Amino acid sequence: MTAYTYTAEELAGFFAPPEKQQGRRVAGQPVKRELFQQHHEQENLRWAEDLLAQVEDHAASALFREYQRRLGRNQARSANIWLRKSVEQIKAHAARFPLPLRMVANELSRANIAREWANAVAAIIQDQTADFTQVVPVQQLLDAALEPARKWGISPLLPVIKDEANDRQLDMAASALARLQDPEWWERQITKAWRRYAEHVAILVGRVRRGVSPYVSERALQDYQARKRAGAAWLQTMFAINEELGYEVPLAEAVAGSVANPEIRRHELMVRMRGFEDLAEDQGWVGEFYTWTAPSRFHAWTVARNKKTVQNPRYDGANPRQTQHYLCGQWAKARAKLARLGVRFYGFRVVEPHHDGTPHWHLLLFVRPQQRRLLRWVLRRYACEHDKTELANSYKPRFDWRAIDPAKGSATGYIAKYIAKNIDGFKVGIDEETGTAANNTAANVAAWASWWGIRQFQQIGGPSVTVWRELRRLREATANPVLENARIAADRARWADFVLSMGGLELPKSEHLIKLANIIKPAASKYGEDVPKLFGLRTADVTISVNGITTGILIGQAEAQTRHQGWELSRTGLGERSERGSSGGSRAPWSSDNNCTGGSQTAVKDPLSKELALLGLDETDRQRLEAGAVITMDGLFISIRNNTLSVSRERPGLHPAQDPLAEWETREFDAIERDRAARYRRDAQQLLHRGGDIEHWLAAIPAQHQQLALDQVTELVEQMEYEASWQERDAGWGNDEDEGMEAFA
Description:
This protein has 26 helices and 22 strands. By secondary structure, the protein is α+β, with helices and mostly antiparallel strands. Among the domains are: 8-87, no CATH class; 101-199, no CATH class; 258-463, Alpha-Beta Plaits (2-Layer Sandwich); 474-561, no CATH class. The strands form eight sheets. It has a five-stranded antiparallel sheet, with helices on both faces. Strands 4-3-19 form a three-stranded antiparallel sheet. Strand 16 and strand 17 form a beta hairpin. Helix 6 (107-128) runs antiparallel to helix 7 (138-152). The chain is globular.
């Protein structure tokens, strides 16, 4: 232990009578004076206090509480070793941040940091291209622009540059560079990194475990529920409207009728699972149920025989997302091996957390009877590939299996409780992992999946579920027999018939008879990427064959429209908008089609759009500018800041203002606006937490600030959507929500 010279005041405090030390606290926790009576015990206390000052308060508080508990069991030496290693582990995880954590932990500070790092990337690009006058190799420019992001351990999706004449690779590189210059992208990435770090620390110090807060910490659960309430409040204020068709739908009703509704989601999963089981029975395939768990080193806490949770000495500090990545890697190896062996299977996978947040898998797979042992052997091999010494004479702690016996119950019944437990806890009863009611812990599981970006349900094999959902939107019969057979199956919720109408389980996915039809909107995203808009369905060519001899093509490319274009989100319905007439003072509502010819009349009247039109810029350019991009034209730099068009001969953000007084006034104004926005954001969070009325709250705010206040509510919803969005899916998975894991094969 490092020698320390105490001051007179410290010595007086240490050796004061016990009654004088009674109110002393360390990391917010009261000091148990009976544990620190002797001189060496006082030194331990001082050492622990200095050590805990190096980590966040919430972590230090939990560590000191556990430290005193260990001291109370007369384990001073082991308690000191434990505390030192715990602090070192937390500091190692904090080292990934290039800035002090107190800055990253603050929401307003993160916004400022994001702008600074985005501007730093813009400056690097400007320097690399000599003020945009020189052509630079794409890979060189990407490497230079990525340097700031590497310090944070973050990165946009990057292309593999093999040919600099490849348009697709160049488009991906341009999108990556656009993201690196976007403050909003930086803020999302930094916020996500901070939240996951804080939750990981909560796991390390024991705030996530059975008997305390299962699956996620209490703070993460409250944050998730607050964002859900904010999202629900936002939905109540929005309409989905289509002026061309004269349709108007409250957005809350539209969401309640989609798979975003937990009950509908559960029903659909059960229908698909039952359909797979019906197919297996018809084809003579058998069902196998597997449980796949990560090695012990991925588990922070274990449950002792007395049902109490204890720290796992083998734990190496992995977080739930890293554990999921490990399991996906092992699953990829198993799939590749099974493909080489010619083993075909299909079914479902459910990912759920252990009490400490560590994910494990349940798989219900159907396979030919003669291949079931081979399937079982390959999965067991890769589940137990590492850390074999801890398995002793049994592999069951890592991999367990059960052959489905139809006489004892259906295959769907085996997995039904796992599906329900991870959605809404419907009729599950007691959650065995936590010992509490499953309908109470379902919110914890949902928060866990959202927080760590883990996909809970995965269909393995079979056709596209998006095609199934689009077919269910068709209410009228079609003249195309391929589409019509599939439509009837989907409309009657017969997944087995739908699979057969798509060509059966043996047909490769690329040859399925019905595919999605998309309209590609070039450069329509804020990062200049092509955006596919789902239009409907199309059929593939169907070959007629008699006794194995091809006699012709029955059907060519037939299409069925399932979605109307021109939908937009608005805070006012069609009736309110028509009442405002041509004098309406509201801004154009969000629309994916406002940048197209013939967009909404409101968008045309926007003064900013008129100014851009005079410069020869369209709404696509506007989206890029509003995302923080800068457009160069004839030596001018065009940008949008604070919803104001700026045209300058100097690139914004790279040169100081010429007028010091104007610069000071700008800083003061920005500070006032940030403070006001932060206050409204806190008020909105508290209001939603209490279940208050958003409209009454807005009515009490001055009219000139109501939009700012409502924007704070909207941003809270956007944060929720980002955490749960498809962009948070595990690497290697496709865009379809429940597609198979073909990318790992």
